[in-house]
Predict the 3D structure of the following.
Amino acid sequence: MTSQNLTNPSKVHLIDHPLVQHKLTLMRRKDASTNTFRTLLNELSMLMAYEVTRDMPMQDVEVETPLETATFKVIDGKKLVFVSILRAGNGILEGMLSVVPGARVGHVGLYRDPKTLMAVEYYFKMPHDMQEREVVVVDPMLATGNSAIAAVERLKQLNPKSIKFVCLLTCPEGIAALHKAHPDVHIYTASIDRELNSHGYILPGLGDAGDRIFGTK
Ligand code: URA
């Protein structure tokens, strides 16, 4: 599936760079070790940070080079907040922060009720002055969309300048659900997989991202 088949294609950014696709393929293998999975996720997160920050606002600064003084561009990393949806989102944070070390970090704790698959909030901690910041929500899997929808809903109460959503992979159902609830949110993903199964897992997918990052299974 390409982003052309979606209802809101201009807000879905498929990161199809060969390096990203290669690393994602290696992560999907069921015999990839926890260490390999985590290392690849870290590398992939740096590459995805590159895409998601592409249109970040820049400001002019004067720099004295060895030859003369001139004006150049810098980003203001402090304006950016990476919001991790616990716990799997933390697997993306390290890579993102190594590319934008000045960024602030927020955490949203949500668990999926195994029966209803709905998101239940148990933790929410954000930096102050959210109305001055650009938010990038991170979660490796956009599956049912329930956690993403709940996190974005909660974040919108703080009135940030913008909200983007970054995941490793998603499926048509996840994109449709998030965009139905929040059509303004840009989604960045390395893959749009075939479908969601009845247990809320993405197919072919890569299994339970949290378990694979933290070695809990
Ligand atoms: N969460 C996961 O970790 N994997 C899926 O396939 C769906 C949701």
Observations:
- Residues 141, 143, 200-202, 205, 208-210 surround uracil (CB under 6 Å).
- The helical segments are 18-28, 34-52, 90-99, 146-156, 172-181, 209-214.
- The chain has one domain: 2-57+77-214.
- The domain at 2-57+77-214 is CATH 3.40.50.2020 (Rossmann fold).
